[in-house]
Amino acid sequence: MKIKLFYFARLKETLKYSTEDLDLPADVVTILKLKAFLAKRGDVWGEMLMGKLKVRAAINHELVDDKAAIADGDEVAFFPPVTGG
Amino acid sequence: MKIKLFYFARLKETLKYSTEDLDLPADVVTILKLKAFLAKRGDVWGEMLMGKLKVRAAINHELVDDKAAIADGDEVAFFPPVTGG
Amino acid sequence: MTVRVQTEDFDVGFEISQLRKMRKDTGAVVSFVGQVRDLNEGDSVSQLTLEHYPGMTERSLSLIIGQAKSRWDIFDALIIHRVGTLEPTDQIVLVAVSGAHRGEAFKACEFIMDYLKTEAPFWKKEVTQSGERWVEAKQTDDAARERWTTTHESIE
Amino acid sequence: MTVRVQTEDFDVGFEISQLRKMRKDTGAVVSFVGQVRDLNEGDSVSQLTLEHYPGMTERSLSLIIGQAKSRWDIFDALIIHRVGTLEPTDQIVLVAVSGAHRGEAFKACEFIMDYLKTEAPFWKKEVTQSGERWVEAKQTDDAARERWTTTHESIE
Fold it and tell me: Which domains, ranges and CATH numbers included, belong to chain D?
């Protein structure tokens, strides 16, 4: 399953990634599983995605929770709670 | 007791008075008594001040009710409910 | 605090900008602009004339701002109200409130409008197809004002 | 409905005036202008950089206006939000709502701001004397948004 990933704000800065294309293993089918999958990349990934920091996710520009299902071709984004306005 | 009187909006238009100086009899000491005193001037005065029309009053630029006491030198005004904004 | 009653039009952008820049810790300016509608009580309106009670008007508007300032943590407030003859789409009134944060500024601005509508001595006469008529005070305006006294806690 | 995300400044007076004149039966335009404060969490702020999620930002702002339109009897709404580097007293955001009457326009405008603050993908990084830092989301913003769902009836 191929997806496009985006990171914003503190996540982008710390992970040093703003976007990447990924081909996910068959069992990575939800946001929570995607976080766990990325966390395996190492310390800073685990800290950022599975640590104390609140992380919000979007699929195809829509806010979703950890249980949301990911489909092939989706645009997935991870970012901290928003602070606009 | 000398007062200055003002009328606004529909009252001014119907009574054909915008302002007048009055020397009140000794017993005309409240807004209600002043209304009754003015109503004695004739039909349109009675209709306007003691009739069905809601009349609001101010003494020295402050909204007051019928029981408010009038003092020598006061500026008294009668007008319909306000409709600004 | 600024209160102006005038026949001339006003520049909303300029006024909001002045209020905004007055302090560098201003975070929010909430404003209300009232416009003459071409429609009232189902009739089309071609003209509106606003009369007021000079002296009392300025006093009551200042008192309303004073009340808003004592109730909410706002920095400053401005009211400009036009009088004289106006036409549909003309601006009638501007209320603007500045503060550190939006919640207080929103409440204070709406409070000022609700009190202005029921306490400030302005009267409107409108011209419709069937002639001139005085605009009647609305019960909905009294109700809007009452909210601030009776259910104050739930509004805040 | 207008949604714009831009680095350039905006002209509040022009935008409000456009919205106001769109319909001759417009009676009220309520607006909110947000400004960069020189102070946050007790520290003086010299600069602010706003990042956003292009595409999702526009979508979420449009959805927020759509929700406001479905809940209140308003005519139209506008959101302009700046991104990039800003300084104290710079304008950040404009929300303006037009309608026949003020009550609905006030509610819709505040609703849009409360949702924008908690749902639109913008992030602020500020420069203080002690360096750069990401601005933390505020619980008061979450609480402000919650009002529209949990105590909806008492707010209206």
Answer: 2-142 (3.90.1170.40)
> D32 forms bridges with which residues in the sheet?
C30, D95
| Contacting residues of A for D113, CB less than 8 Å apart | 85
Contacts of A14 in chain D (CB under 8 A): none
pTM: 0.95
**Domain layout of chain B by residue ranges:** 24-72
From C30, C100, C151, residue closest to D32, measured CB to CB = C30
The interface predicted TM-score of the complex, written ipTM, equals 0.94
Tell me whether B84 touches chain C (CB under 8 Å).
yes
Burial (CB < 10 A; 0-12, 13-18, 19+), residue C6, is exposed
- Note down pLDDT in tens along chain D; length 156 residues: 999 999 999 999 999 999 999 999 999 999 999 999 999 989 999 999 999 999 999 999 999 999 999 999 999 999 999 999 999 999 999 999 999 999 999 999 999 999 999 999 999 999 999 999 999 999 999 999 999 996 544 444
| Contact at CB, C113 and B85, closer than 8 angstroms | yes
Length of chain A: 85
